[in-house]
Records
---
Amino acid sequence: MNSGPNNAAFPALNGESLDGLPHGVLPAALRERWRDESVGSVWLRPSDWYHPAVDEIAAAILSPADTSVAAQELGRARGYDGVGIGETIDDLGALYRSLGATEPPAPVIRALCEGWADAQAGALTFGAARDPESGLPTRQYLAIRLAETYRDAAIPTQRARTAGDVGHHLVLVDVAAGDTDPFTRAARSAAVGAAMATTYGEGHPMATLGGGVFAVLVRTDEHTRAPFDALHAEIDRRCQLLDLRAVTRMPVRVWVEPLPETHEQALRTLERVART
């Protein structure tokens, strides 16, 4: 069921004016109206209100899209940033008040809470090893998972291994396209981090390496082409939605980096491909 706007709840979208918000309002205008409402009533720290997820839900609520999907992304972003669940729900309420509604629909609130809970569960797993911009773990986390991979590869199995075969490789993603300001870089990192998590999901250790470069550890027996295509499409979709294509390498560079024979060499590989 679509949780997007309807004429009864959002008269501004039916050709009428709602407190200066005209028909055909753009997501950016709604975002600023929402921010003013939230910061003026419920948000505790104005400097950390913005996240690319707010643009996604602002666009969704003004379209026929299912707002619950974007609400879950918003909840996940707020949870990663350490925002409490009460403040997160109140902020969503400020969005709906900005469009003349009394409160968000129940499915949207539920999706927001589910996203927030997912982020909290992830925080328990990764702790301080999570990058605040992308929402992905840091290089140090990936180094630990690589150590586990090499350790497991050293355990005898019934499948004969060649020298240096650890059964995994790195999929690397480079989105950098020149210098960017910190705000734009953070938005791009968040978009790419969300795209990688959506494409590969749980069970695939991934990390930001810095400078617009990201990595995911993948088994060598997994099909490669389909995730490549899906990742390209998801990054492009998110960057287009957030108007980030001008600061994102197009097409995004995605390639496979074989793992060397030792963990120490793998760490040097991470250093080589990263822009620090």
---
Amino acid sequence: MDGYRGARTALIVGAGVAGLTAATALARDGWQVEIAEAGPPEAPAGWGLCLTGPSLRALDELGLADSCLVAGYGMTTITQVDAGGKPADEVRLPRLIGARRPAMAGIARPVLHRVLYAEAERCGVVVRHGMTAAAVDQEGEQVRVRLSDRTARTVALLVGADGIRSTTRGLLGFEATPDYHGQMVWRALVPRPAWATGIHHFAGKAGTAGLVPLSDGQAYVFLTENGVERSALPDAALAPRLRQLLEAFPGRVEEIRSLVSESESVVRRPVLTMLLEGAWNRGNGVVLGDAAHGPAPQTASGAALAVEDGLVLAEEIGRHGSVGAGLKAFVRRRAQRCRTLVRTSVAIVGLEQARRHQEAYSLVDSCHRLLAEPA
């Protein structure tokens, strides 16, 4: 098909992974793109994430995989350790971007944000901070958006990429509420131990823990706390409580425990999932990334799905004669893949809570295999 040839103006709400990659992909296809971001210009605070093979493959299509590998820590293996502290299995993941490059990479969230932000700006994307969408009206094949600073935009495409608690989702008329699954996940930045050259997962009697390298000198430790109500703790209580929870794990976790400092490098967040059933688009507006499908963190799939969404969105709109047709094709192409990942992540949470760790590991492996298939 000839593809969409109308006025190529897009407003994206949210400058996270999904919003920035969608903005870059659209801008490279000739779109005039503006992002409304509620947060400040500074890179957001954060700990780390794992760019799995599918994440790197999608970033490679944008020419950004090598920048992420240089800024992060390349890896190929996941070591699974049983509740007795003994290695139970070592999984070697496929190298989806070539035999000479790693299968995955750990990277600090602020570092990834700077890489994506810089590329979006290089492609001509304008990012405006301190604002978000306040109202949306469909006007034929245009979308009129009133922003929180009381200005308005009329665009051919509105993209809601404002996360699992998306307000744009509601403005487009979709109803969805994130689900809490009785788990709180802890993360803390620590110095990288010399032995940590890949991801380590540690099974425990009451929860699970792990370590992900982020650079030559830094890693982050994570821990899932099962069977707890959603709650908040004072900042001063976080590091002592995390060290206490890590006491239940034998072996190398004792070394990790000693690295958890009293600094502000510890966070505790609820494990939430969200799945928007049915269409994600209405008129010329669409939601993507966590605003449409937020998996639990155990699958390490959120970043991959977000980057893939941005690429596929631009590709499908470019293939169709109208934005509406492109959005419908985008949802058809993405829905089953994302639905399976979210539902599988919920099943993994249940298995962890039942202490059926080997079955949980098998499901995580199935997620990696599914995402290794083309998007």
---
Amino acid sequence: MPVVQVADAKVHYTTSGSGSGPALLLVHGTGSVGAPVNWGSTVPLLDDERVVIAPDLSGTDATTDDGGALTVEILAGQVIAVIEDAGLGPVDLLGFSMGSTVAAAVAALRPDLVRRLILVAGWAHVDSDEYLRNLFTVWKRLGRSDAEAFSRTVTMTGFSRGFLNTIGRDAVEAMLPNMPPTPGTLRHVDYDLTADIRPLLPRIQARTLVVGCLQDATVPVEHSRTLHAAIAHSAYVEIDSGHVVMFEKQEEFVARVRDFVSAA
């Protein structure tokens, strides 16, 4: 599997699929498991007509670095390096949750590498939202003191109540290990608390789709609406799901992505 050196990080990424269409690069959200847990069931639904690239950024188990604090510039630099190393740019770039802040930064800093941009369940900063600031702070505290409570909390806020009740107890319990509070995960949470991409949003030139999740108890849908308002000429859609929309409403999510990247 490909690895690219970026400063002190050895960034792992995967590629799958083929086809003549622009490559699609998926940027994962918070959590040390990274791309496999975010995109494992989604990639096969998207790689039939194009190459799909899925990097694991610093903080994940697959990528090694010095363990220092993460910034927008560091993570965006890793995605830029992956695009260049894969040699498939300009790409269609999709970021989920934490990954939306990274994807937006890449589009702003290197417009030559991004054809289209999709931001899913994202935010620009947490300073003015006491709910989000406190939620990430609770994650940070629980991650250091009670691993089970951390995993239950992120599962509870990651999905809508209706979805959790529909899949049932055994399935919910099976999901708990998907986001363990490793040191890498907690580095991501620290990043979530401090990242601020507001100055970069006016610089985005790529055609952009912002996807908000109506029942999102992690990042309230108002943050997606704010991103849409800040990105000139962006399109906006809402999906009636919790935060992890690619699991909860997979068919609708994939259709939205396909329609946007395929439109003339």
---
Amino acid sequence: MKAAIRSGLLALATASLPAVAYAHTGIGPAGGLGHGFMHPVGGLDHVLAMVAVGMFAAILGGRALWLVPASFVAMMAVGGLLGMEGVAVPFVETGIAASVVVLGLVVALRWNAPTVAAMGIVGLFAIFHGYAHGAEMPLDASGQQYAIGFMAATALLHIAGIGIGSIIARLSGRATTAMRFGGGAMALAGVGLLAGYI
């Protein structure tokens, strides 16, 4: 008897799992958190640029380690709002591809920029990335949850870039070569994006 009740409860719980998943805000059609989170990680251009921002921050170190990624996330939120509101921003796709080229070169050259300059550069490119996220928000998604999703994914990609940059820095003599190779590959991918090959 107990086994039958246990089996029945297990079957009922299993059958109700899809309903439970959709009842949570931000998952599935009812919300935007999942959609927002997946948007940055679903595009090579976004992934490369955001990882490069983290690597750039790791190269600079100190306060830049959090100020540079934070400025990207903040300005990306501004761009996202512009995209959600349908405000026209020119050259968005070009700006995104150019960000991959420029940030790849910054990493390859291990540019030791002043923190304020680095914040300005990444902040400018962040507007284009944010605009693309906001403009492509599903119609049935919650704008606030969607924004939280793409900002969280972006922050995680920055953290990944910081981790990669920190690991490379520990390679001592090979660090410069590894950084040049990684940044150069990113920049080449950006050229491919600009030319329409990727």
